[in-house]
Design goal:
The complex is a heterodimer of chains A (about 270) and B (about 425). Chain A is built from 11 helices and 10 strands. Chain A has one domain: 3-Layer(aba) Sandwich (Rossmann fold), CATH 3.40.50.300. In chain A, strand 7, helix 8 and strand 8 form a beta-alpha-beta unit. Chain A is globular and about 55 Å long. Chain A has about 270 residues and is α/β, with parallel strands linked by helices. Chain B is mostly helical and about 425 residues long. Chain B has 2 domains: about 110 residues, no CATH class; about 240 residues, MetI-like (MetI-like fold), CATH 1.10.3720.10. Helix content of chain B is about 75%, strand content about 0%. Chain B contains 14 helices and 2 strands. In chain B, strands 1-2 form a two-stranded antiparallel sheet. In chain B, helix 8 crosses helix 9, helix 10 packs antiparallel against helix 11 and helix 11 packs antiparallel against helix 14. The radius of gyration of chain B is 30 Å and the shape is flat. Chain B starts with a helix and ends with a helix. The chains are: A alpha/beta (about 270), B mainly alpha (about 425). At the A-B interface, helix 3, helix 4 and helix 7 of A face helix 10 and helix 11 of B. The structure holds adenosine-5'-triphosphate and magnesium ion. Adenosine-5'-triphosphate (ATP) binds next to strand 2 and helix 2 of chain A.
């Protein structure tokens, strides 16, 4: 506990929620994975979701960009709003939603294409640029924002799968940024990386916070404490406790939270 | 004693050896002590192996010896065959059983013997299949060389006229026949091309549908049905092509004022394509399924639609494998015989018009070898030359396809 208490967490700002989930329940077939989850995500902050394996963190994250729609037999109940608009309303185009709410996955998953084509993938399918120059511009700035440009600018045509794990993950972040999202969902983005690559990604996430709202699932309590302003603790499909990161880690209200962050169960 | 009873007696002896060895081992194990030890049935196997392997070895040697044995004189040879050989074999078997049963004790390393025997059987099986292939190639090669003694290489590979039938009628002018194989290979290529134009899009699209769009239940029902298509004997496709599709094309042709012969390349090619659809779709299905889910998630996560994901991520990632599958399918189409025999006919026209009749290499091989043959006539030998060239073509296609497919496998590891 001592170790977690003395890390400095950025100031919490009082901001309005950009995403707001009310009474969200998710079923895979007959199996209920989430039960009446309520959570507000503040804009331009980093919110971390923690909790033991199988408690529904990924499931919740995938509700926010309707990736669950691609899972056969998955049903979402409740209400999730983005900027006040219900994202599950029938008139919402989930494809546009996913462009606004980008996602970075646990395992780096660059396409087996060149670095350039990986980043240009989103802008191309959405027709975000008018000509090659503009596309070049978007690709370069995205790589720059993801902190990868310096390492790859001489080999933009090399294949993306040939990069190191940490570089691949930053490529995936660049790929998400190129679609110009407002919100980025990250599902354990560092779990396949070594400590140095992890530190780079954490640095990057903190920089991105200025312009994006970030929601990150992590199994590392230190990581949650280091980078996030708000933390939600999931347990068996429910949110047990949610609050300012510093408060939650130093002074949890619920016994189960206390137990989890001190490593008594997991 | 003739061969079959001998083998049966041998097997009976080994079964007995197995049973007796197991029992003996069982009697020796101390059942009060529970620890990992050689199991009784493994001792049984050990005994059976010793009873079987040496006599089998003898039998193989005998097979080789028979070739020369007849030079000993028929009476002596007959005695060896009916008395000496069976007795020796059974004695060897009995000796093997006896010695191995005597050796049974808990410390004996029987697992190693069993593993060696299994290894031997596996090696033998694969060697035999390789040797068969090599044997076929050599027999083709031998006859082909004879053929090229009679017909110059240049005529076969460059000649534009194929009429081997004239070679039979010695009274006819130019009775040596014409052995220009180009019309045959051109016809084969034309029909293969048509078949691929049918099979590749249909097979690929149905694989995409099965993997990316269909629900699990639909897939569970329809996939086996598609695979049944692959089990239809080609002769059935053949008369379907000849009697239904060919006639249909001719009728449609005459309705719109086109002259389509009923044995057109089109009919044979289209039906052959149908035959190959399940082949391409089930190979592509496996290949598309092997594209990691994470790539699909990545694409959907960026706001791509399903069809964009298929076109821009999944198919490009699967492309090398699909190319491999198509090459394998091409080599099947080239070698396919029954459909073209029934639907394409024997007229060796050199044409690129799919509405005319063409013939293929395989059809001509059938034509050359059906009926009474003199085995050293140019006509018969031509079949071997055609077969060898066909073999070389399909072999190279398969090798290329395998290399392509293997390269692609490595990519996700
Ligand atoms: N596609 C699916 N089909 C059926 N059940 C699923 C599916 N995906 C997840 N589940 C179930 O939903 C529950 C929540 O899973 P989820 O992946 O959200 O957990 P998680 O908190 O992300 O766990 P982890 O930390 O291990 O990633 C689990 O019990 C899981 O078995
Ligand atoms: Mg998860």
């Amino acid at each position: 506990m001592q170790m977690l208490a003395d890390v400095t967490t950025p100031e919490i700002e009082d901001v309005e929620a950009i995403i707001s989930a009310k009474d969200v329940s998710v079923f895979y077939g007959d199996k209920q994975a989430l039960n009446n989850v309520n959570l507000d995500i503040p804009a331009n902050q980093i919110t971390s979701l923690i909790g033991p394996s199988g408690c529904g963190k990924s499931t919740f994250l995938r509700c926010l960009n309707r990736m669950n729609d691609t899972v056969f037999g998955c049903r979402v109940e409740g209400n999730i709003t983005l900027d006040g608009q219900d994202i599950y309303a029938p008139e919402v185009d989930e494809v546009l939603l996913r462009a606004r709410v980008g996602m970075v996955f646990q395992k780096p998953n660059p396409f087996p294409k060149s670095i350039y084509d990986n980043v240009a993938y989103g802008p191309r399918i959405h027709g975000l640029t008018r000509d090659k120059d503009e596309l070049d511009e978007v690709v370069l700035t995205s790589l720059e924002k993801a902190g990868l440009l310096k390492e790859v600018k001489d080999r933009l045509n090399a294949t993306g799968t040939g990069l190191s794990g940490g570089q691949q993950q930053r490529l995936c972040i660049a790929r998400a940024l190129a679609v110009q999202p407002d919100i980025i969902l990250m599902d354990e983005p560092c779990s396949a990386l070594d400590p140095i690559a992890t530190a780079r990604i954490e640095e990057l996430i903190e920089e991105l916070r200025e312009n994006y709202t970030i929601i990150i699932v992590t199994h590392s309590m230190q990581q949650a404490a280091r980078i996030s302003q708000k933390t939600a603790f999931f347990h068996m499909g429910e949110i047990v406790e949610v609050g300012d990161t510093e408060q939650l880690f130093t002074n949890p209200r619920d016994d189960r939270t206390q137990g989890y962050i001190t490593g008594r169960f997991g | 004693m003739s061969f079959l009873p001998l083998v049966l007696v041998l097997l009976a002896m080994c079964t007995f050896g197995y049973w007796y060895g197991s029992r003996r081992a069982m009697a020796q194990t101390d059942s009060s002590v529970r620890r990992v030890a050689v199991r009784p049935h493994q001792f049984g196997l050990y005994v059976a192996i010793w009873g079987l392997v040496p006599p089998v070895f003898l039998i193989v040697l005998w097979g080789l010896f028979q070739e020369f044995g007849s030079s000993l004189g028929p009476a002596l040879f007959d005695q060896i065959r009916t008395i000496v050989f069976p007795v020796v074999t059974l004695l060897v078997a009995a000796g093997g059983l006896y010695v191995s049963i005597q050796k049974i004790n808990p410390a004996l390393k029987v697992r190693k013997t069993i593993e060696t025997a299994v290894y031997g059987v596996l090696i033998l099986a694969s060697t035999l299949s390789v040797l068969t292939t090599v044997g076929i190639v050599f027999s083709l090669l031998f006859e082909t060389i004879q053929f090229f003694d009679k017909v110059p290489l240049s005529e076969f590979f460059l000649g534009l006229e194929w009429s081997p039938q004239t070679a039979l009628r010695a009274d006819q002018v130019g009775s040596s026949g014409a052995f220009g194989a180009i019309p045959l290979f051109a016809g084969t290529m034309l029909i293969t091309l048509i078949a691929m134009m049918v099979a590749v899009p249909l097979g690929l699209f149905s694989a995409v549908y099965m993997t990316e769009y269909a629900t699990d239940r639909f897939r569970a029902i329809v996939k086996p049905i598609l695979e049944i298509l692959a089990g239809i004997p080609t002769v059935v496709y053949g008369f379907f092509a000849a009697l239904t599709v060919g006639v249909f094309f001719r009728d449609v042709g005459s309705a719109i004022g086109l002259d389509v012969v009923s044995e057109s390349a089109l009919a044979a090619g289209v039906v052959m394509g149908m035959m190959i659809i399940p082949f391409i779709s089930s190979l592509s299905d496996d290949i598309i399924m092997a594209v990691p889910q994470s790539l699909r998630d990545g694409s959907y996560g960026l706001g791509a639609t399903r069809s964009e994901t298929v076109m821009k991520v999944i198919l490009p990632a699967a492309l090398p494998g699909i190319v491999g599958a198509v090459l394998l399918a091409v080599s099947r189409a080239i070698g396919e015989t029954m459909i073209v025999v029934m639907a394409a006919g024997f007229a060796a026209n050199l044409t690129a018009n799919p509405l005319e009749a063409v013939t293929t290499v395989t059809v001509q091989i059938v034509g050359l070898l059906v009926g009474d043959q003199e085995f050293d006539s140019a006509k018969t030998l031509a079949a071997f030359a055609l077969a060898l060239v066909l073999f070389v073509i399909t072999l190279s296609l398969n090798v290329i396809a395998l290399i392509v497919v293997r390269k692609y496998r490595e990519k996700y590891d």
